[in-house]
């Protein structure tokens, strides 16, 4: 098996195609918005039909969770060739996602439906601080409202969200962590070490890996991700984001795809998450994950490319997308021998990191 089709025309699929090319694997991408195929890493689109896709690609994967309700991408996403079809039925809807976690006995923040106006007041009385999340469509802080007890609830469009949102207990977490792992078509699994993440306004700005002081949490995190992948009969790379609360892991979100918090693996490990994703689908054995040293991933958000970055410590990955506020346009990876050296290297990136990033590093250093 040497051909894989990715549903989605973004940077994640492009990085999968790049990873496949290094081992002679053909990874093509289908752009649902333009209804065109992007062969390999090419930007020259060509038309393709369902029958040709089924004849050419024995395995279909995804780089995102949502697709148009009709058209070729919808047919391909629901076909038995798509190794993410089980996940696509569950993960995009937060009600279904949370219900699955409850069924599996995996810890997640207590929650309830937002069905009517009074439910928000009920949740605040029950939980104190709450997070209102649209059942589908929200990401990078969109479709999310955070309220503490006593806050003005009118900022939440309850009438619009009724029946289309959930309400979670606001978790007083110590830090945000994630795990990225792969499962192949035979059911074998492999996991990267837990990663420390720092979000600002709902957008990931900095990841540090391996996360410090996580030896006792690694195996529980792996068990949770493995259980989710098995429940969904999923193949490829998947990520789970956690809150660490009182020394325990609480699942926040699940991403049935390669994930932003795994971008550090480009330079920080022998095999990146994109390598493992493609290998898991193409029958290449999953390789042991050798981490090179403390690694940081800096997201480059809403800013034009700056030639000066090429003189900074680390390696820049640029996606070639148009610039707009809040958009993920690239990332930079820094690898060091120690966390202290990593901290020094990140100071060169202070102009693209929000205020407070050094406090995150200090907490990982135990300062």
UniProtKB/TrEMBL annotation:
It comes from the Bacteria. Keywords: ATP-binding, Ligase, Nucleotide-binding, Purine biosynthesis. InterPro entries: ATP-grasp, ATP-grasp_carboxylate-amine, ATP_grasp_subdomain_1, PreATP-grasp_dom_sf, PurK, PurK_C, Rudment_hybrid_motif. SUPFAM superfamilies: Glutathione synthetase ATP-binding domain-like, PreATP-grasp domain, Rudiment single hybrid motif. ATP binds at residues 94, 133, 168-171, 176, 199, 252-253. One of its GO terms (cellular component) is cytosol. Residues 98-282 form the ATP-grasp domain. It catalyses: 5-amino-1-(5-phospho-beta-D-ribosyl)imidazole + hydrogencarbonate + ATP = 5-carboxyamino-1-(5-phospho-D-ribosyl)imidazole + ADP + phosphate + 2 H(+). GO terms for molecular function: 5-(carboxyamino)imidazole ribonucleotide synthase activity; ATP binding; metal ion binding; phosphoribosylaminoimidazole carboxylase activity. Its EC number is 6.3.4.18. The keyword Secreted does not apply. GO terms for biological process: 'de novo' IMP biosynthetic process. PROSITE patterns: ATP_GRASP. Pathway: Purine metabolism; IMP biosynthesis via de novo pathway; 5-amino-1-(5-phospho-D-ribosyl)imidazole-4-carboxylate from 5-amino-1-(5-phospho-D-ribosyl)imidazole (N5-CAIR route): step 1/2. Catalyzes the ATP-dependent conversion of 5-aminoimidazole ribonucleotide (AIR) and HCO(3)(-) to N5-carboxyaminoimidazole ribonucleotide (N5-CAIR). Homodimer. Belongs to the PurK/PurT family. This is N5-carboxyaminoimidazole ribonucleotide synthase. The lineage of its organism: Bacteria, Pseudomonadati, Pseudomonadota, Gammaproteobacteria, Oceanospirillales.
